[in-house]
Amino acid sequence: SQRSLVLLKPDSVRRGLTGEIIGRIERKAGWKLVALELRTLERSVLEQHYGEHVGKPFYEPLVEFMASGPVVAMVVEGERVIEGLRTLAGPTDPIAAAPGSIRGDYGSIVRENLIHASDSEDSAEREIKLFFPGLA
Ligand code: GTP
Ligand code: MG
């Protein structure tokens, strides 16, 4: 099975949506949480996490937002979790995201789109090492 790194972004925590979102992930058959922590992210961690976006116009405000309050960082394990969590999250722009997806149900602003989930097996491996270096 696969593992994916999920971040419930500062807007999710501020708005009290983490229980709702974690519940949706937990209820998915065959998926389980293998790590979970409430944490305020250092800029250096965010620079590595969002390294692919350095130099883009949205990069600075993105890092600023992601450091603006605590996030819930998690590792989810199970059948096709990488693709499955991207589907559960919905597309980057919450207005383009279908109702039923997390971004589609709760978001309207591209930056404040509630959740991050790894976009490939390579990203998942890199991100899990970055956020949970001690995880077996
Ligand atoms: P993450 O799971 O957070 O990585 O989102 P994603 O994979 O759906 O999108 P991507 O990696 O392309 O971009 C990372 C984050 O930057 C997004 O979640 C948005 O918050 C923000 N972002 C991406 N593209 C834009 C954009 O065109 N405008 C703005 N304002 N923000 C953007
Ligand atoms: Mg991304």
UniProtKB/TrEMBL annotation:
Annotated GO biological process:
CTP biosynthetic process; GTP biosynthetic process; UTP biosynthetic process
Q: Which GO terms describe its cellular component?
A: cytoplasm
Question: CDD domains of this UniProt entry?
Answer: NDPk_I
Enzyme class, spelled out: transferase
So where does ATP get bound?
9, 58, 86, 92, 103, 113
Q: Does the keyword Nucleotide-binding apply?
A: yes
Q: Which UniProt keywords apply?
A: ATP-binding, Cytoplasm, Kinase, Magnesium, Metal-binding, Nucleotide metabolism, Nucleotide-binding, Phosphoprotein, Transferase
Q: Which InterPro entries match?
A: NDK-like_dom, NDK-like_dom_sf, Nucleoside_diP_kinase, Nucleoside_diP_kinase_AS
Q: Which residues form the Nucleoside diphosphate kinase-like domain?
A: 1-135
Going by the entry's taxonomy, the superkingdom of the source organism is recorded as: Bacteria
Q: Which Gene3D superfamilies match?
A: Nucleoside diphosphate kinase-like domain
Q: Which Pfam family, any one of them, does this sequence belong to? A: NDK
Catalytic activity, reaction form:
a 2'-deoxyribonucleoside 5'-diphosphate + ATP = a 2'-deoxyribonucleoside 5'-triphosphate + ADP; a ribonucleoside 5'-diphosphate + ATP = a ribonucleoside 5'-triphosphate + ADP
Needed cofactors: Mg(2+)
The EC number(s) given in the record are 2.7.4.6
| Protein's cellular compartments | Cytoplasm
Active-site residues, Swiss-Prot/TrEMBL: 116 (pros-phosphohistidine intermediate)
- Function noted in UniProt: Major role in the synthesis of nucleoside triphosphates other than ATP. The ATP gamma phosphate is transferred to the NDP beta phosphate via a ping-pong mechanism, using a phosphorylated active-site intermediate.
Name the family the entry cites.
Answer: Belongs to the NDK family.
Cited NCBIfam families: PRK00668.1
What is its quaternary makeup?
Answer: Homotetramer.
Q: What is this protein called?
A: Nucleoside diphosphate kinase
The gene name on file is ndkA
